[in-house]
Amino acid sequence: MIGVAQEGASVSITGLGCQVPERVVRNDELSQYVETSDEWIQERTGIKERRIAAESEALSDVALPAARAALAQAGLEGSDIDLLIVATVTPDMAFPSTGAILADRLGAVDAAAYDLSSGCTGFMYAIAQAYGMLAAGLATRALVVGGDLLSRILDWSDRSTLVLFGDGAGAVVLEATPGGGFLGFELGADGAGGMHLWLPGSGSRIFDDADKHVKMNGREVFKFATRVLVRSAQDVLARCGATIDDVDVYIPHQANVRIIEHATKKLGIPSERVVINVDRYGNTSSGSIPLALADAEADGRLRPGKLVLMTGMGAGLSWGSALIRWTKEAA
Ligand SMILES: CC(C)(COP(=O)(O)OP(=O)(O)OC[C@H]1O[C@@H](n2cnc3c(N)ncnc32)[C@H](O)[C@@H]1OP(=O)(O)O)[C@@H](O)C(=O)NCCC(=O)NCCS
Prior knowledge:
This protein is an alpha+beta fold and about 325 residues long. About 30% of the residues lie in helices and about 25% in strands.
């Protein structure tokens, strides 16, 4: 799916917030659980540490402060929101949705609230969907949360996945703006590759031996990631009549620094325009892009007029890009 923003339907991000759990887990600590080393993890992934949620925390607990920060930045109350989407594969529970739980905790009474599941691409799908509902006049102010506590579904004895992921959440407010904002989206999925990154036993399909832990064919996912990050970005840029030279801030999914470096090189974007925080958070799945957006804002890169390119990819296998002309003054 690919498309550009409708004429006269400017929708932008007017608030941004993020939250990560307090506990920092460095690579060395993981070698207590599996045979690995700080050296291997840093060399193959660029990850140094990640955050891991406390036992008492569920996704909505981590997402709530992120959502509150995004609302505060937009100058809104929870009651101003009429659409709340939570992109996640680790909701508090299958139902009620974490969207409904969060809407209640924020006072977003009567807002449409639900969860959206598309692995690490979830946040990109969710902002495209919120954009569409706002542009169509179905909603007026949307809160989109991307977050996951992947530590809950990892096999803590499987070194091929344990070292890659972390917990965290980010949130954005979407509203109509006089100009600028989202310019276009490109989203897609290839279910044929789905079994390269999956969670057997997590739904209605019955497996004899499912242990409800993430399974991954790292090499296949690596090949897929390097391919789609480049192609999806190029497609959305071309459809919007932009080139990579126009992009001021590039936010790729934070899975592995080698994947990001590959995409950066192939796209031909200078490294100083690329946002990288996978070293501090690992891959936070649906939280990855909004956490990186928050980092870019914190270091002063997100200013009105800047062209921001975001591309996510993950389970599905799926991918998604968005191009946005930033409109919000830094907090
Ligand atoms: C997982 C990934 C880091 C592995 O890197 P790689 O360079 O492909 O490494 P390989 O899988 O070839 O493994 C190399 C060796 O390291 C070993 N190894 C794997 N994980 C290890 C770990 N955590 N610590 C130490 N050694 C490890 C392997 O067993 C293998 O040993 P062998 O050569 O004796 O068989 C890489 O494939 C990757 O990033 N894939 C994409 C994953 C991803 O992003 N998933 C989420 C997408 S949203």
